[in-house]
Write a structure and sequence with these properties.
The protein is mostly helical. Helices cover 64% and strands 0% of the residues. The chain starts with 5 loop residues before the first helix and ends in a 5-residue tail after the last helix.
């Protein structure tokens, strides 16, 4: 996980185009766990998937990756997805990403 898995990130990117939704969901999860930042745009672009496993994995991984650029997209998905668990992880991820943004804008006082 983390930096030790970054080399594998490049090898996993082709799985984001897999026709097999379970395979895509696993790749998205591993890329998030590995903190593979170059995958963020590709993961974010697939939030419109109809497979709940893929959307759940995407939201969770974008949260792990600290992808603040995805906040609006995640919020939109969380507001209207048919599965309550996806809506729930979406709401929690948006809150976490906003919290990260707030923390990063706070300057330490000397």
């Amino acid at each position: 996980y983390g930096e030790g898995a970054h080399d594998a990130g490049k090898l996993l990117l082709p799985f984001l185009d897999s026709k097999n939704d379970a395979e895509r969901a696993y790749a998205i999860t591993v890329l998030g766990m590995a903190d593979y930042q170059p995958a963020v745009p590709r993961i974010q672009s697939q939030l419109a998937s109809q497979d709940w496993r893929v959307v759940y994995a995407e939201i969770r991984s974008l949260g792990w990756l600290g992808a603040g650029t995805a906040t609006a997209n995640i919020q939109e998905v969380a507001a209207g997805f048919w599965l309550p668990e996806v809506r729930d992880i979406g709401t929690k991820t948006v809150a976490a990403l906003r919290s990260l943004r707030e923390i990063s804008t706070v300057r330490p006082q000397s």
